[in-house]
Amino acid sequence: MSISKQYIIGSILFLLGLINSSVIASDYQQRIDSIKKVILSKPGDSTLVKCHRRIGRLYRDIEKDSAIHHFNKSIQIATKSNNVLGQADGYFNLGVLYYNCEEFDNSLKEYLSALSIYIAENDTNYIIGTYTNIGNLYAYSYDKQATLDYYIKALNLSTLSNDSAGMANNLNNIGLIYKELKNYEKAITYLHRTLEIDLKASDIQNIANSYSNLGLLFIKQRKFEDAFKNLNEAYQRYQHINDADLKIEVLSNFGEYYLEIKQSDSAYKYIGMAIDEAYRSNRKRSLANNYFLLGKYFSLKKNYSASIKRILKAIQISESLHVTERNSEFYQYISDAYYKLGDYKNAYLNKKTSQLKRDSLHADEVSLRLVDFEKQIELAKIQTEFRLEQQIHKSEYEKKALRLQLLAQSAIIVIILLVALVLIFIIYYRNKTKANKLLKRQNEIIEHQAEELKISVEHLEEREKELEQLNVTKDKFFSIIAHDLKNPFNIILGYADILNTDFDNFDEAELKRMINEIDKSSKITYNLLDNLLTWSRSQQGKIQINKELYNLKHLVEQSCEVCKLNATNKNIKISIEIPIDYKLYVDRFTISTAIGNLLSNAIKFTQEGGLIAIYAEKDHKNISINIKDTGIGMSEETAFNLFNDGKSNSTLGTNNESGTGLGLIISQEFVKKNGGEISVVSELGKGSIFTFTFPISKIDE
Q1: What is the pLDDT of residues 180-205, one digit of tens each?
Q2: How far is 681 from 598, CA to CA, in rounded Å?
Q3: CA separation for the pair 274, 287 (Å, rounded)
Q4: What is the value of pTM for the model shown?
Q5: Is 526 helix (H, G, I), strand (E, B) or coil?
């Protein structure tokens, strides 16, 4: 659809909206006039408060200033007559009004005023609603810690009061926070719980909202079939949605779906519909989000200037509302667009702004708060089960006591006639007690033997795993000796035999070539033997880890020396970008070996004229060393299995360099011996990044 057609359709829809609004306004005015007649009859203060509040609600969607006047009037009368709940309702309705007008600071102020009264009056339903709305407002300012605190308060109170609507609303909100933290599986769990409650309540609008949110999550996971299924469920309910924000969200999510699957025309259609609805409903926050999607659309079309223009518009609208929830993402896309245009200066400046925005989010604190919340839920579940078990035991005890009481009463009635029978019963009971004690003792012996057997089985299983690992190590060792070590020796022996028997029959160039092959095979054999020796010592526990504090940059530079000749032969540039003040508490030999092995690996799989960058990153918990190359990369499956399948992986290099993959195994073992972790991120055809991560110790600091 062309832009001109889109605006013509938008204009028609806008005119239809105006006609519909005038009809609604006329109906509202009749109802307002009716309530004003009640006010003129001078009823009591309680009725006056309700009348002004009802008029304010009717004006809320058609005349903002009149609505504010009547809500304030209801608060004044309620304050004068000491009607505290009337005051709170007035503040709450002002909060709703300012929220709909996207004056979020004013809305927060009014909600907080209402909340203090509702808490004092213990009005549970309104406390839940106010907690939820305040959480939504903090979400727009991207104070996720405050947002989460209010959502959890609302959810806990909803659970205690069995308020299913409040539970669904806040489960949905907490799920969306997990989405922001990119914990999509956890987010989907919460949203499925929300959808389950909404389906039971047959709430069409909330059902549509849940399906829409699930669709967006599946887009983030790139599960496009599931995404379309859920978005389609939401869209089928579109005509029944009264909430303008939800209507826009359903259209926007469809637009984002089509952007992700590269169907730009369909994406443009839904984004355009969402923008029209946002203008018609005066929803600036939603308008900003859809301008961002429009920017992504133009980026997909490779019109990067148009993309930057739309996303800057999104930022302008967001900042006018003091809504910063997605600004980090906005600036990142602008940076990418400038980079595609070759404007590297603006690309760098916008990327830096994006990082600054992201660093202010306190995601770690929110994650910790969520973990604590999950623990509280688990503890509450355990406590509930314990109380239920106690009640069951108590009930059984009372039943037993009642039975004993009835038995005693019956015994008293017939005691004279059944003395002999009682004596027999006593003897029988004593014998039974002895038998029970003997049986209990035998059960204890059996349980003890079972426990010992269980421990023995566990020990055997552990031993079996150790033997399996030793068998893998043995097979690998023999494989290297039988194949990887044999091949270069065959080359050396072959060429040596030729030179020994036919030396005089070859010219100088041919002799030089054969000597070069012998030299190359000798070096391969030496490196392999060196790795085998190192690996063998590691497997036997003969390598001692002696940690000291080293200057990280000097350590990396010294570790790279042995590989510089190979890099020079392939015209590969190695850059080391590590701050001079970074220090690391490790064993020098093992970490130097690991760095050298990974650098050698990067040179092997990087084409001639490529680049290898070694840089470090540090936060308050960890320090990481990254070795990034511009080589051939690897598939996602190969990268995943590199350190997870317990086997070495060998592939020829860009110049047909051979290897065994043993260096990667040694690197992984040595990094772990120093208390670190090793990982890899790679994309086929674009290169790889190998990362060592070590926790920062007090000595490092």
Answers
A1: 777 888 888 888 888 888 888 888 88
A2: 13
A3: 8
A4: 0.44
A5: helix
